[in-house]
Amino acid sequence: MLVKQAACVGGGVIGGGWIARLVLNGVNVAVFDPDPEAERKISEVMANAERAFAKLTLAPRPPKGQWRLASSIAEAVDGAELIIESVPERLELKHQVYREIEAAATPDALIASSTSGYKPSDLQQGATHPGRILVAHPFNPVYLLPLVEIIGGPNAAASAIEHAMTLYADLGMKPLNVRQEIDAFIADRFLEAVWREALWLIKDGVATTEEIDDAIRYGFGLRWAQMGLFDTYRVAGGEAGMKHFFAQFGPCLSLPWTKLMDVPELTDELVDSIASQSDAQSGRYSIRELEHIRDDNLVAIIQALRGNDWGAGATLKAYEEQLYTRAHAAQTQTPTAQEDLSKPLLALETSVQPDWVDYNNHMTESRYLQVFGDCSDALFRRLGIDASYHARGLSYYTVETHIMHVDEVAGLEPIYATTQLLSADEKRIHVFHRIHHGRDHRLLASAEQMLLHVDTKAQKACPADPPILAALEPIKTAHAELPKPEAAGRHVGERK
Ligand SMILES: NC(=O)c1ccc[n+]([C@@H]2O[C@H](COP(=O)([O-])OP(=O)(O)OC[C@H]3O[C@@H](n4cnc5c(N)ncnc54)[C@H](O)[C@@H]3O)[C@@H](O)[C@H]2O)c1
To answer: What is the 465 CA–ligand 1 centroid distance (Å)?
Structure first.
């Protein structure tokens, strides 16, 4: 059950993120932060969060809550069911803040600290109702990253933990209950280990900050993002399994190439307990299935990064540009006379990607348009339109599309698409694309499109460059002999 009224004490990097997540989930938030710049800073985080959330999901969220600045902790926590403390990481300051909160809050309000490392029992010292103070440790940016570690320690009421687990899940988060109280909890223990090694690598002059970031973001960081540590190693062990993996790599931990001290001995007992926990975690999948899940996740992440031209996505983008350039060079070297232009051009061959399907496991509507768009792109590349052509402010725009859906195709099934040139002049290309099933060649869909050559700076139609028109000519001549597709020129709803 979502809370209606919350208080945030501290509205900096983390508090601001909490305020945004709460407000975007329809919760009203009263904020106390003595920083005179608090209103501006929180408004900026809110604007970022709204921008990101709008991209994250189109699902109907509750109407936005309101946030307001309060002039004291007492005023902020008045009537709040959830009180989030995100003040600087100093224990005596946190204690002082809890004293003020407890003096004004209702006794059943949950008090959740964002602390990165203090144990709940440290925080609860001196509290009137220690059982309702717990740690809810988030990750920056709080409005986007789902993980929140929930730690109650020995004194927290079981009902407070339960309440917190539901409450954060209702805010779209993944609450992880850290059952034993330890300094830095689970996630920051890792970050600390990685951080320690990074500091050594820099101090020893082995790597720069950029090289260290590259080592993470182009490789294992992508794997970790979607499978964490143990499932990744489960897959790495292959069919021989986790035990094999440890037999192979475990001893490395005692080699001198690590700075990690105090590595636990890999006794049979430890290996057995890791292997059986991993079986419980993912034993229901075969290694092959896990590999497919991993690969699909990685493809989705890398493609998303390509959209942002960032990290591994920028590498993919550069690689694709190289491939297109090479393919284009190969095409122009091959005399077109050798190509069989007496039939529609083969535009692309692929399979229906796992994320292209709807709830019936059929390729979903928007992906047809995407594939037809890819067909037009394939034609443009064939005509010699490349990044340098676009950089001159010249391009073809799609001005009209009519798609006809003929048959269904399921996820992962092979498809191919062809392009027939219906007509072309110096400004227009009129095409007819078809998508066929890759195995039985049945027609799945067709699209008739009008493509207009434009000067993108002037935003108006203009003639294509002579070499483009010359490349069009042999296709135009050959395709003039092809029968006009029945569906060409149809209007929506016309009887077959
Ligand atoms: N920055 C991170 O990545 C991160 C991640 C997880 C948890 N945390 C934890 O979150 C907490 C806040 O960290 P942050 O990074 O947001 O720090 P921050 O410095 O950005 O924000 C702290 C805010 O608290 C305000 N403040 C100071 N005294 C106050 C008081 N008496 N009452 C109310 N507000 C007061 C400050 O004006 C400031 O706006 C810390 O406990 C930190 O360990 C930080």
So the answer is: 59
Global confidence as pTM: 0.76
Strands 394-405 and 443-455: antiparallel
Task: Report whether pLDDT(335) > 70.
Answer: no
C-beta pairs of 249-257 under 8 Å, 24+ apart in sequence: none
* Ligand 1 center–CA 61 separation, angstroms: 28
DSSP string, 216-253: IIIIIHHHHHHHTTHHHHHHHTGGGHHHHHHHHHGGGG
Q: Is 35 in the pocket of ligand 1 (CB under 6 A)?
A: yes
Atom of ligand 1 nearest to the CA of 93: 31
- Integer Cα distance of 36 and 10 in angstroms: 12
Structure confidence by residue, pLDDT tens digits, 64-123: 999 999 999 999 999 999 999 999 999 999 999 999 999 999 989 999 999 998 999 999
CB of residue 45 inside a 6 A radius of ligand 1: no
Mean pLDDT, residues 276-287: 87
What is the token pair recorded at 42?
């929180």
The DSSP output letter for 77 is H
For residue 73, report the distance from its CA to the centre of ligand 1, in Å. 15
What tokens appear for 246 in the block?
């440890």
Ligand 1 centroid – CA 35 distance (Å): 11
Testing ligand 1's pocket by substitution, the residue of 83, 99, 116 carrying the most ligand atoms inside 8 A of its CB is 116
Residues 406, 29: Cα–Cα separation, whole Å? 52
Q: What is the mean pLDDT of the chain?
A: 90
Dump pLDDT digits (tens) for 121-155: 999 999 999 999 999 999 999 999 999 999 999 99
Please, are residues 434 and 445 in contact by the beta-carbon 8 Å criterion?
A: yes
Instruction: Please give the Cα distance from 321 to 256 (Å, whole number).
Output: 42
Q: What is the pLDDT of residues 154-169, one digit of tens each?
A: 999 999 999 999 999 9
Distance from the CA of 222 to the center of ligand 1, in angstroms?
29
Q: Ligand 1: does its nearest atom lie under 6 Å from the Cβ of 17? A: no
Residue type present at position 144: L
CA of 17, closest atom in ligand 1: 16
